[in-house]
Design brief:
This protein is mainly alpha-helical and about 290 residues long. It is built from 11 helices and 4 strands, in the order ββαββαααααααααα.
Length: about 290
C-alpha cells in the first residue's frame, strides 16, 4: 500500500517529485480560482444554448435567442443608408451652387466626395491631390480646362481623351516624330519656350525659335504662351508643368507630344457621387 509523504515544515502532502532536494507540494487550487473556472463552464454551456455556436454540415446552431451579428450589421447599414438617402436625394435634385450654399448639404457632399476621391482618384492625383509628374495638382490655381464647379463636374463626368462621346479632347502634334520640324528647329522653339518664363540660356536660338512658335504653336498656346482653356493648352510662361519645364523635357514634348488620359466616370459612379467629387475637389483650394 502506497504511503503518503508530507512536507516536514508545512505538513502538506507532496507529489513525490523532487528536484535538487526541493520537493513539490501537492497544494490544492485556490477556492476562488475553482469558483471562477466552474462559473466559466456554466456560462459557456449557457452561451452554447442561447446563441449561435456550433457549426454543422448545413450551417450552424441558431441558439434560443436566434441572434445574428450579420443581421444586426445589415440593419445598421440599412438605417445609415436611409439616413444618407435624405441628403443624397437633395443633392441629386440640387445644382452645385445650391449645394455649396447649404451648410448641411455641403458637409455631406464634402464627406462623400472625400471618400469617393480616396477610392477613385488618389491613385493618380495623390492622397492630398498634390498630383505628380503627368498628373495635375488639383489644389493649385492652374487648370487646363477651367476650375469652376461646373467645369470640374464636366471633366469628372466625361474625362480627358477618355473615349466618351462628350470627353474633353485636344491633340498636340508630334513635331519631331512626324517630321514637321527638324531637330534644330525643335531646339530653337524649345529655347523660345524657355524664354517665355525667363529660362532661356541661348538668346540667339530663342530668337530663331520665335517665328517657328508663331507658325506652329501660337494658335493653341497664345502669343505670350498663356495657354488656352478652349483647347486644354497649358500655360508655357508659368512654373507649373506636368512633364517638366527644363530644356530636355520641353524638347521631348515637342518631338513626341503628350496625351494624358483621364477616365470618364459617367456610368461608373452615381451622379450624386460625381457632384460630391466636384464639390470636394473644388474645395481643396484650387477651385475657381
Amino acid at each position: 500500500m502506497a504511503t503518503t509523504e508530507r512536507d516536514e515544515i508545512s505538513g502538506q502532502e507532496t507529489t513525490g517529485h523532487e528536484w535538487d532536494g526541493i520537493k513539490e507540494l501537492d497544494s490544492p487550487l485556490p477556492r476562488w480560482w475553482l469558483m471562477v473556472m466552474y462559473a466559466c463552464i456554466v456560462w459557456g454551456v449557457g452561451y452554447w444554448v442561447l446563441y449561435p455556436a456550433w457549426p454543422h454540415m448545413s450551417g450552424y446552431t441558431k441558439g434560443v435567442f436566434g441572434y445574428s451579428s450579420r443581421a444586426e450589421v445589415a440593419a445598421d447599414i440599412g438605417a445609415a443608408n436611409d439616413a444618407r438617402k435624405v441628403f443624397a436625394d437633395r443633392i441629386a435634385s440640387a445644382d452645385l451652387e445650391t449645394i455649396r450654399q447649404d451648410p448641411k448639404l455641403m458637409e455631406f457632399a464634402l464627406a462623400g466626395g472625400k471618400s469617393a476621391y480616396g477610392d477613385n482618384c488618389a491613385g493618380c492625383h495623390g492622397s492630398a491631390a498634390q498630383g505628380g509628374k503627368g498628373y495635375p495638382n488639383l489644389s493649385d490655381d492652374d487648370w487646363l480646362w477651367g476650375g469652376s464647379l461646373e467645369v470640374i463636374q464636366q471633366t469628372i463626368r466625361y474625362g480627358i481623351r477618355s473615349g466618351h462621346d462628350e470627353t474633353r479632347d485636344s491633340e498636340m502634334p508630334a513635331f519631331g516624330r512626324d517630321e514637321v520640324l527638324s531637330k534644330e528647329q525643335i531646339d530653337q522653339v524649345a529655347e523660345f519656350v524657355l524664354s517665355l518664363s525667363g529660362q532661356a540660356k541661348d538668346a540667339a536660338a530663342a530668337q530663331q525659335g520665335a517665328p517657328i512658335y508663331a507658325e506652329q504653336c501660337v494658335d493653341c498656346h497664345g502669343e505670350k504662351g498663356q495657354g488656352s482653356r478652349e483647347f486644354g493648352a497649358p500655360n508655357l510662361a508659368d512654373a507649373i508643368w506636368l512633364f517638366g519645364r527644363d530644356g530636355d523635357s520641353i524638347r521631348a514634348i515637342v518631338t513626341n507630344s503628350r496625351k494624358g488620359v483621364m477616365p470618364h466616370w459617367q456610368g461608373r459612379l452615381p451622379e450624386t457621387t460625381i457632384k460630391q467629387l466636384a464639390i470636394y475637389i473644388h474645395a481643396l483650394g484650387g477651385g475657381e
